[in-house]
Design goal:
heterodimer, A: alpha/beta, B: 121 residues, mainly alpha
Chain lengths: 253, 121
């Protein structure tokens, strides 16, 4: 099945958004697995200025591929997907990573939860419940600390606030596509922003794996910057009083 | 302030002034940014020619040497103008990001449209 040959106006109501940077080794097997596990969805890969053949491989695998003109970072790539979803009026969006850490088997669980329509964002947690995932110590500590902070601020328990494996409804997509969304390192601070914007979040357990190929975005000096950025971002989010208007008056059809 | 210093300060600011005006004339500097630089020129001329002002400011901020006052304000000005440019760059980053995202999406849409056109032909 090749999406490229369907009429432009036709699409399904669920979009999977996958930002990818130099993931030619992982992407095709990932797309295949998604297709196998779940049909009736569109897949959008955002090629974040890759220097390898990520875009071509993804296109061959039958995904829609947006090619950013240069490397813009994870957050900006992700947001491109949300903007597309908003433009095309998709009902639900699932965001996941291209490196194979997020198990496509969990997409269905995320979608089932968001389809209940009593929540705006469903976050997949690698720690909630069971799960085999073992994060490196530093990462685990960071996740724990920011989870605690986010829990205190939002008054809601969060075991994995940094998770990039989420399902969103249209309200949440609208928020993610807006200038409110922090495109450099969207992470634990997003939970606080979502909370401040009045969007409802829920966590469910998902399966995550260790990385297969390629380099993590959390390497080198980046963890330090990451920690600094999280604290600053959380702090200023609390200082801001501009509010994102969650609901549109008239529901779009 | 000795006459020599005055002459140098005033001529430097006049050259700066002319340079700014010329840059704006040749559209290498936008009017939007030129005012900041023109202001700098005016302040330098003012401080160089009006010694009393410099002395009173020096007394006001509790500095001993008038030259320190000049350096202090010079640095302060540079810091502020850098901050100003940082905000401008942040704004530009957002705009470039939005434009690139839209271009990328539109390009994909266009490619698909062309594809489906050539298919139906």
């Amino acid at each position: 099945m090749n999406l490229g040959h369907r009429a432009l106006s036709e699409h399904r109501n669920v979009l999977i958004v996958i930002p990818a940077y130099n993931e030619e080794k992982n992407i095709s097997s990932l797309l295949e697995t998604i297709r196998k596990k779940i049909s009736e969805i569109d897949i959008l890969v955002i090629d974040d200025g890759s220097t390898d053949r990520t875009a071509r491989v993804a296109e061959k695998a039958g995904a829609l591929v947006v090619k950013l003109p240069f490397n813009m970072g994870y957050g900006a790539a992700l947001q491109t997907g949300f903007k597309y979803a908003l433009m095309k009026r998709y009902q639900y969006v699932v965001q996941m990573d291209a490196d194979g850490q997020h198990d496509p088997g969990s997409i269905k669980a995320l979608l089932d939860e968001i389809r209940k329509e009593d929540v705006d964002v469903v976050m997949g947690s690698r720690f909630f419940g069971n799960r085999e995932y073992k994060a490196p110590f530093v990462r685990r500590t960071g996740i724990y600390i920011f989870g605690k902070i986010a829990s205190i601020i939002t008054g809601q328990y969060s075991t994995d606030p940094t998770s990039g494996f989420q399902a969103l409804n249209r309200d949440a997509v609208r928020f993610y596509a807006s200038p409110f969304y922090p495109v450099d390192y969207p992470d634990a601070d997003v939970i606080i922003m979502l909370h401040r914007a009045g969007l409802r979040i829920r966590e469910i357990p998902v399966t995550m794996h260790a990385r297969k190929e390629g380099k993590s975005m959390h390497s080198g000096l980046k963890p330090l910057y990451y920690i600094f950025k999280m604290f600053l971002s959380m702090f200023v989010t609390l200082l801001r009083n501009d509010r994102f208007v969650r609901r549109v008056e008239k529901k779009e059809g | 302030m000795p006459l020599q210093q005055k002459i140098i300060a005033i001529s430097i600011s006049i050259i700066l002034f002319m340079l700014i005006i010329d840059l704006v004339r040749r559209r290498m500097l936008r009017e939007e940014y030129s005012w900041l630089w023109l202001l700098t020129g005016v302040v330098i001329v003012l401080l160089a020619s009006w010694h009393g002002l410099l002395i009173s400011i020096t007394g006001l901020i509790g500095v001993v040497l008038p030259t320190s006052t000049l350096f202090f304000f010079g640095l302060l000005f540079l810091i502020i103008i850098n901050l100003y440019f940082s905000t401008k760059i942040s704004g530009l980053y957002d705009k470039v990001k939005d434009v690139s995202q839209e271009v990328a999406i539109l390009k994909m849409e266009l490619d698909r449209l062309v594809d489906s056109e050539s298919k139906s032909d």
